[in-house]
Amino acid sequence: MRTRYRIHNQFNDAKWIQQFAEPRIELNPSEMEKRGLATGDAVEVFNDRGSFKCRVKANESIRPGSARMFEGQTADFLIEGNVQNVTNDGYVERGAELMCGPVIPFSDTLVEIKKA
Question: Would you say 78 and 44 are in contact if contact means Cβ atoms under 8 Å apart?
Fold first, then answer.
């Protein structure tokens, strides 16, 4: 998912953007309540492949059981780790026909989230 503050990871280093666009993972408030989380808390996002840490934000539009993080969040601005630590090395085979080649299936990465 793309954000209004940058194109992919371009403009990450712009100080004026950083004041508005801190990397965060968004969860439905019901999911946050189950985990004892509040907006602004530091969380660990993890699975069997690895983990990273960032801030969390409540968002009613996120379906319970799902999480959303905007594209282009680099390790430079996360609390710890890298988003790629939780993604898999596979790729979408049907994507081999795309002009730019296959892509990794990051949209279906399963993770768990807990307070850091």
Answer: no
